[in-house]
Amino acid sequence: MKGIKIIKKEANTLRKILINEKQLCTEYKVRSDDDFVYFPLIDDYNKTLINEIESEFNVKVEDHNFVEAQYRPKNFMDYLDNKISEKDLEEIRKSFDVIGDIVILEIPPELEDKKKIIGEAVLNFTKRKSVYYKKSKVQGVRRTRELEYLAGIDNLETIHKEFGIRFKLNPSTVYFSPRLATERSRIVNEVNDGETIIDFFAGIGSFPISIAHVKNALIYSVDINPEAFKYVNENIKLNKLVGRVIPIEGDVREVIKELPMADRILMNLPGTAKDFLDIAVNHLKPGGILNYYEFSSNYEMVLERVEKIAFPRKTQLIDIRKVKSQSPGVWHIGLSIKIE
């Protein structure tokens, strides 16, 4: 087949041109020897462009032998080719969560009869150990969801790695979102050494342990779910911490009575955190920071709610942001605010 032979020191420059101009045939492998690199061209290559390349690089288009490239699917949808109709493919949610060795999918109800095929495709593409799909939304005070096994090894306990930290968990018995990794990093950067912090809804301790991993702070990790309490204790042992995390199992409305006043309070329970705002504000030291989260369609509603609860204490907005999309027009909004 037609290709271009070029000396190695100029090969990378030519490769970029051929890729950008869509002249490189990706069905065959680029090959090389001690002195030259050989690029396969597409059958209907642009003769005008290639003539310019020949002149600029002092090369010629000639016949060369190339080996066929092994096909590598670009996404799990490629593994479903000829197994599910094109119409049905469009209905599948292309995004999924990866937690440790587990992949968790969202599949529309109308494709449930094909869920096993989809699960096998995702398993082959991601090379993870297990695939499950969401049978329910996050629900209840323990913030758990029902998961159904689709493919691989049927074992829901895993270790998720994030920024050098290991989190052990079972996503069917505790709440954890890998999509909050950036938000956890943001909060870690806000924290100063020496802070006393209370996480009202800590789950497996993802925020407290992320903070204590690099900051010399004291963090009370509170959650009502006994499974979360179990895992936060295990996660403390799994990680080398600079600060100290104290796990507490119980309802924060009762637990708070025994805790010291805080320099910072975390409230990542966006569905119902607003019901605990008065407790949080009353337990913040003057000048303390509230990291508050709520599902809302706008910033103003969130900020006004916190300012109203904090009154007559003065407030100073540090940051307000969209953490991630919750549903059309509704966002998981994060607020960092100082309360004097």
What does this structure look like?
- The chain is an alpha/beta fold and 340 residues long.
- The chain folds into 3 domains: 2-63, Alpha-Beta Plaits; 76-156, GMP Synthetase, Chain A, domain 3 (2-Layer Sandwich); 174-339, Vaccinia Virus protein VP39 (Rossmann fold, 3-Layer(aba) Sandwich).
- 28% of the residues lie in helices and 30% in strands.
- The chain is built from 10 helices and 17 strands.
- The strands form 4 sheets. The chain has a 7-stranded mixed sheet with strand order 13-12-11-14-15-17-16, with helices on both faces.
- Strand 9 and strand 10 form a beta hairpin.
- Helix 5 crosses helix 6 (206-214).
- The N and C termini lie far apart (74 Å).
- 34% of the residues are buried.
- The mean pLDDT is 92.
